[in-house]
Design the sequence.
C-alpha cells in the first residue's frame, strides 16, 4: 500500500490499480480496503481504482481531530475547557 498525508497530518493508506477514469472506492465505516479488494479487481479492468483504508482502519493512521475556535486558535478534541 502507498500512503499520502492528509491536511491534518494523518497518514492515509491506499492501493491503486487499473487504468482509465478514476474511481475512489469507499467501503463501510468499520471495514478496511481488503473488504473492497474483490470489487476493486473487477473495476480495475476499466478504471483506475483507488481503494483506501479509512482513518483508524487498516494501515491508515488516526489523528485526534482538532477544533478551530473563534479566536483562530486550535484545540484538540477531548481537551476542551470545562
Sequence:
Amino acid at each position: 500500500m502507498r500512503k499520502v498525508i492528509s491536511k491534518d497530518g494523518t497518514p492515509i493508506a491506499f492501493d491503486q490499480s487499473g487504468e482509465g477514469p478514476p474511481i475512489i472506492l469507499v467501503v463501510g465505516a468499520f471495514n478496511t480496503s481488503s473488504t473492497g479488494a474483490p470489487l476493486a479487481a473487477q473495476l480495475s479492468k476499466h478504471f483506475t481504482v483507488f481503494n483506501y483504508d479509512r482513518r483508524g482502519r487498516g494501515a491508515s493512521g488516526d489523528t485526534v481531530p482538532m477544533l478551530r475556535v473563534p479566536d483562530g486558535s486550535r484545540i484538540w478534541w477531548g481537551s476542551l475547557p470545562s
Observations:
- The first helix runs from residue 33 to 43.
- The two ends are 41 Å apart (CA to CA).
- The chain has a mean pLDDT of 84.
- The chain is about 15% helix and 30% strand.
